[in-house]
Amino acid sequence: TRFLMRMRLTPDCSKMLISTSSGYLLILHDLDLTKSLEVGSYPILRARRTTSSSGVSPRNSLEVLTPEVPGERDRGNCITSLQLHPKGWATLLRCSSNTDDQEWTCVYEFQEGAPVRLVSPRCSLRLTHYIEEANVGRGYIKELCFSPDGRMISSPHGYGIRLLGFDKQCSELVDCLPKEASPLRVIRSLYSHKDVVLTTKFSPTHCQIASGCLSGRVSLYQPKF
User: In which pathway does it act (predicted)?
Assistant: First the structure.
């Protein structure tokens, strides 16, 4: 895939998501790794899921999307970071404009099933939450992540990180899905670096989070109970 940036599998391995620096998100549906994954073999499903005459979607169906990004409707963007919700409910993207003057963190809910009217395009992803990021460290990729339970997002923000939630109570995504895209809530901001933070990660087993900056320093945080 040209301009490949990131690739992720959903927890049940039913989908493969591929992001590109040209702003496209590719989704392989009903993934079957025993079949050819050559580009020429993809059944192309541009911006909608379709079904065959038997009512069953073909394996390895490719959907090509240009995810909606706030403030970038009239300009291209680069999808630099891609993560999946630990329960497979959503995908998390970090996007930057082609001119590198804006950065966004966006959450997209997976919408399953075929469209009600097959003549109407139906996108498999719907933008539910977003937040604009600090436009610091232009040209560098910032890696963000979900918490192990999927209730929080940790995102690099300038010389630190921000812990983000779908609401102030850190509710589950499925319990606070908005009808229209809404801003992510800042739960806490943590700044301990002297250089631009490029990556952050929750521990899968402990109440701990790490962040790493451009100069090579790694910081570890844990809550005070």
Answer: Protein modification; protein ubiquitination
**How many CA atoms within 13 Å lie on the side-chain side of 83?**
25
Helix (H, G, I), strand (E, B) or coil at 220: strand
Question: The whole model's pTM is what?
Answer: 0.85
Closest CA to 158 of 200, 106, 221, 115: 200
Domain boundaries, the chain: 6-32+58-221
Contact 65, 125 (CB under 8 A): yes
Q: What is the DSSP string of 28-75?
A: EES--TTS---GGG--EEETS----TTS-PPTTEEEEE----TT-TTS
pLDDT in the model for residue 116 = 39
Task: Please state which CATH class domain 6-32+58-221 belongs to.
Answer: mainly beta
Confidence at residue 117, expressed as pLDDT on a 0 to 100 scale: 38
Q: How far apart are CA 161 and CA 98, in angstroms?
A: 23
Average pLDDT by consecutive 10-residue portion of the chain (225 residues)? 87 92 89 71 46 61 85 69 95 86 91 49 81 88 95 96 96 93 96 96 94 96 84
